[in-house]
Amino acid sequence: MFSQLSRVFIFFIISFCNVYSQDQKPISYLDQKDEVIYDMKLSYKEYYGSGILILKKSDSLNYHGAFISKLGLGILEFEIVEGEFTWIKILKYLDKKLIKKVLEKDFSLLMLTDLDRGKVKIKNSDEEGVKYKVKGKYSYKLKVNNNKYLYLRESGFCVLARTKISYSYNDDESIVPTSIELRHNMVDSLMKLDIYK
After folding, report:
1. Per the structure, how many domains does the chain have?
2. pTM for this model (two decimals)
3. Three-state DSSP class for 111?
4. Domain of life here (predicted)?
């Protein structure tokens, strides 16, 4: 009798854990539209650029992004296919190893690519929302409330210039952020995105 009862209990626990783990992954804002277009301002030390950023997610492992000036000049274009970041185009001024590496990380975090490829688990939950711990190519903590992102904080041991992203919304309906700000600790940089109207 005891062994049969313990089997039922174990079966229940395993079933509960499977259902719980499937529901814990947040929904990406890029899953809501074919493409998301932002007015982008980018500053890094003495460099300043502005234009239009177009972000697309074709499926769970493939992403595409392009940053163009308001006059139509392509500043940079990239794709992420099955976790591999590839530059299609980048201005010569930005075509430096360190700058490209930082931009690769920034765009990967902006597009939340590790939600699909990495390990996602709930760290804690309170009245302000749910905090997720995401481990993939990059590790970060993501705070979400009603499928709306509040912030992303890069985590990990020995990470210099940690990335911080904050999200803002104009209405209660959309889970696509109307404004996103990306900053780095100890670095004079800002990437500001406002939904293109």
Report:
1. 1
2. 0.82
3. coil
4. Bacteria
